[in-house]
Amino acid sequence: MIDYKNELNPAQYEAATTLEGPMLVIAGAGSGKTRTVVYRLANMVEQGISASNILLLTFTRKAAQEMQNRAAQLLGQSAAMVGGVQGGTFHAFAYSILRMHKPDGYEGDLSVMDSADAAGALKHCKDMLSLGKGDRSFPKTQTVMGLLSKARNKELTVEDVLRREAFHLASYAGDLSKISESYRGFKRKHSLMDYDDLLFELERLLKSNPELLEYYRDRFKYIMVDEFQDTNLVQARLVRLLGGGHRNVMAVGDDAQSIYAFRGANVQNILDFPDMFPGTKIVKLEENYRSVQPVLNLTNAILDDAPQAFHKKLFTRREGGQTPHVMRPLSDLTQASMVTSKVSELLRTYPPEEIAVLFRAGYQSYHVEMQLGKLGVKFKKYGGVRYADAAHVKDVLSYIRLVVNPLDLPAFQRMASLVKGIGAKTCLKLYEAAQKADRSVLHKACARYPELQEDFKLLEQLRTKPLTPAGLTSAVIEHYQPRLEANYPDDYPRRQHGLEQLVQIAASYNDVDLMLSDLCLEDPTTDKGEDISAVTLSTIHSAKGLEWAAVLLIDLVEDRFPSRHAMNKAEDFEEERRLMYVACTRARDYLGLFVPATIYDRSGGGNTPANPSPFVRDLPDHLYEDWRENFTGTLTRREASMPSFRPAPAYKSTGKPAGAGAESATGSLGNGGKPASGYCTHKIFGKGKIIQHVPPDKYRVNFPGFGLKVIMAQYLTME
DNA sequence: AGCATTACCATTTTT
DNA sequence: TGGTAATGCT
Q1: Does the CB of A683 sit below 7 A from strand C?
Q2: What's the Å distance between residue A417 CA and nucleotide B2 C1'?
Q3: CA(A136)–C1'(B8) in Å?
Q4: Exposed e or buried b for every residue in A140-166, given b needs 16+ CB within 10 A?
Q5: Phi then psi for A610, rounded to 5 degrees?
Q6: Per-residue pLDDT tens for A188-214?
Q7: pTM for the predicted model, two decimal places
Q8: Which chain B positions come under 7 Å from a protein C-beta?
Q9: Nucleotides of C under 7 A from a protein CB
Q10: Which residues pair with A701 in a beta bridge?
Q11: With contact defined as beta carbons under 8 Å apart, do A228 and A235 qualify?
Q12: pLDDT tens digit string along A73-85?
């Protein structure tokens, strides 16, 4: 038996032992959220609840895995029972149900498209409508895909999305709607679903089929949803549908860590949870077990003037600890060297897997990667471009997909295109012939392209004899080998190694179908080399939920972080702030913030001066040590006696009441204050866009050419 | 029709 | 910088 009372703090205990009824757990960063959920799972099993009656929805597969592992550790013997907990991402969960209950309107076997498949389909639709031909400013396929997906995720019309965030494309609204329509038809016709469809179709299925809904409500008597602040509207409705009967729903989240608004996540969901399930018990976890006090002081300061609905002040009992560093290299190039030498220094104290370098966008780690490579420091990178070098994996997977579903269009296109001489047009012709079982056309093609014939032969062969997923995968790889060597002459050994790992992954599945759905919905590269000890390079988004002893955060300058694209709307700016918060709260002992004085900018012709990020500028300077790189490459610490140009920090030890957001005109949490918006003029800087009201009497304004400034209202003329 | 070359463009984050 | 789409060649 586990001694819950002693191993958990009072708030955690309450969350872990309240099993019935709706509950909302507001879990501050590092407050032992996973621990709480795991203990709750253990408690449920101990109370005799069958694991198969528990549904645990997490944001990533990694998180799900982590919870199961830790629950297994905790429970020891009964670990196997916890393994029976249903769960995963919303998308994977949706697909597992949709595979068993095909929704109306789909013919044949369903296939899920990953983003590359979806882009291909979208491009096809665009070409069919011959839209944007010869128009250079017509949005690119990727852009179109982003816009359509955003519209669906936020449940807005394409016009609305364009008006709100891509005004320069407003004239294409009609064309984009047409493409959207055509894309919808295309998916229906070929039984394809993209990521967004999985959620909407599951909702449609459950709504149109009350008996099925009843079945699943009974099946999943206890529901837990992790990272609730990152759910979008459909996801929240799905939770309401599934939890509607028994109401045993626990949502865990932190509104201060909501960083997925760009893909439709709605902070309002977590605020509205108590309305969705009246009688919700609210538990706040505020004790931080992760970071030392100096790090925590800094992260608390980041949130200081952000509007928060669920106000919390994190505290820790971890005494002492190092004050965070702000490092100011001369350029982004020397930043890379400084980061590398800091990493080397840290490696004397910590193992590599306890060190992470974080950044806003995937490309920003480029220099650091080079430097680390030079010194022979092993690292693994998460986030950023994923499928660029995974083309070979996708090739192999398309064969397997075609074995399972002969009419999987994207897979067919991929396989056929591997044959030299077959392009997009021929692909489609062949596919149509295959669909109609038109033997003559296929025979002709096979005669013309012997490689294609071999492909077909292989598929038929593999279909007849049932193999294990691993056996199937090896067979395909063997067949694919010559093409691997032909297509990637320069680096096929490396890719071959990756394929061997694919066989390893396949070996852990009994069911090919399940393996395919997992691999389509998860990033296959994540599983690679998980066991190798290495320094982590990661985008902040991919770092969510993880922690390291030492965290280095790079490129903290305007236009990089906050991203240039987030400088137009107050709510986007607030999301960047939360991103900064998430990044800094990953650190346990050491936090290093890197602020290069210049960055490479090709429009400016090389290195141009950069403004330090407002997230660093606004920090009270007693919270960090300030180190600057000299031209000689040495470091100087700015002495405390040196004057600070910053006014006394607007820092109240009492913290602000929850309603404070209303008086600061940001109001990005909805009700209350009006959002700071519109333009103003300054005598020297000219016209600028108002980003944020800085109480009581200042505004943060983005002036084109000058960057972000905080200016007293009396010097500004409003428009 | 496919494929190589060139010219140009726009730059985030992810299931 | 690199990826993408129009252009031109086979």
Answers
A1: no
A2: 11
A3: 9
A4: ebeebbbbbbbbbbbeeebeebbeeeb
A5: -125, 145
A6: 888 999 999 999 999 999 999 999 999
A7: 0.84
A8: 1-3, 8-15
A9: 1, 3-7
A10: A690, A709
A11: no
A12: 777 655 556 667 7
